[in-house]
Amino acid sequence: MTRPLVLLWDNFGPLHEDRTRAVTAAFGQSRRVVGLELCSKSDLYDWQGFDRSGFEKITLFPGHDITTLPRAGMLGRLIRTARRLGRGDYVLCHWNLPAIFLFAVWLRLTGSRVITMGCSKFDDKPRGAIREAVKSLMFLPYQAAIGSGVRSVDYFRFLGIAAEQVAGEYNTVSIDRIRRLAGRPVAPDGTPFAERRFLCVARLVPKKNLARLLDAYRHYRDTTTAPARDLLLCGSGPEEAALRAQAERLGIAPFVTFTGFVQTEAIARHLANGLALLLPSLEEQFGNVVPEAQAMGLPVILSDNCGARDLLVRSAVNGFIVEPDNTVGLAFFMRQVAEDETQWRAMAEAAAASAAGGDVQQFARAIATLTGVAIDAPAP
Question: Are residues 335 and 283 in the same domain?
């Protein structure tokens, strides 16, 4: 029997399913690939209706989300599941959960290879020496790590993972799935330039910096020399009422659409009709919507705090990078993509060409690199 390859997350949303399906396809018959989720619900997203085919999945606590899990029984259920699956390669998210740490220790002691994955960067927030030293102890059971971009990979190394045992890329998406769901040509083809609008896909929480985005959008409308574009804001969260009130105060409410939470199929269709993706986050470990936007050829205007800019975005080529507190700069870049169709078309073509860097094939290749098992077939 071949050693199993197990990928663990708290809950499988569309992107986790993309990655697990790609790894399953890539390893063919050489490995048994298992997707292991702690719970069947997400505490943040009301995912529903996406494709769950193409891989084996085990759910430990059906009907729960991460906030309602019976913590006392989690470790026991993880160990019993691993005993049934056998020694293998276990790729685990959520290193910070005590049960996951103890599970990683048990796996290591019983002969499995243990790999962690994530997208945190040192510059996400202020770091303290004592806290970072304690955190590094949590990584002792792990023999390798999969990060996202240069800063994430460097942070894993800082926390004690050997440099040659850190690979990328973790935050990836099925480019094929996004394009299939969109049902329209990739930009600059498809929706005419004049009919496209700005798009932001984000939870409505303070770290996404959406209040400044609305300020910048108002500044853009006040200074553009071309017909102003509308703004579509996709997401839900506790800041919605405050943001709606701000849009009213700024006089831009008629031009800003709040969609609430949107399922992945609708996101793909909105991307197909977008002019550019806006993501001015104060804190953003990666920004999964960036490779989704590039899948549909959208230039991206994002803050330099976003991890996705490390490998996927080149300023003035396929998007623009701006400081998160730079309202005028954000509005300036909005005008750049909205007023000059020739420039926008060139950036859209470059964005579509960049999409492969964020495709799930990169995740499958990282798994192959760290486990020493050759890929049988290209990941879809």
Answer: yes
* Residue 5 backbone phi and psi in degrees, to 5: -115, 115
Token pair, residue 4, equals: 């199993």
Cα torsion through 341, 343, 348, 351, rounded to 10: -160
Q: How many domains does the chain have?
A: 2
Mean pLDDT confidence for 273-286 = 97
Task: State yes or no: cis peptide before 339, omega within 30 of 0.
Answer: no
Q: Do residues 295 and 327 both lie within one domain?
A: yes
Domain co-membership, 132 together with 221: no
Q: What is the CATH number of the domain that holds 265?
A: 3.40.50.2000
Q: Examine the domain organization and report whether 29 and 151 are in the same domain.
A: yes
User: What is the rounded CA–CA span in Å between residue 305 and residue 283?
Assistant: 6
- Digit-coded pLDDT (tens) for 156-212: 999 999 999 999 899 999 999 999 999 999 999 999 999 999 999 999 999 999 999
What does the alpha-carbon distance between residue 225 and residue 112 come to, in Å, rounded to a whole number? 62
Q: What is the DSSP letter of 123?
A: G
Are 196 and 335 in the same domain?
A: yes
On average, the pLDDT of the chain sits at 94
pTM assigned to the model:
0.92
Q: Are residues 203 and 237 in contact, defined by beta-carbon separation less than 8 angstroms?
A: yes
Mean pLDDT of 319-346: 98
Q: In which domain, by residue range, is 366 found?
A: 4-174+359-371
C-alpha 101/C-alpha 134 separation (Å) is 13
What single string gives the DSSP state of each residue in 177-222?
HHHHHH-SPPTTSSS-GGG-EEEEE--SSGGG-HHHHHHHHHHHHH
- On whether both 132 and 206 belong to a single domain, the answer is no
Which run of H or of E encompasses 358? none
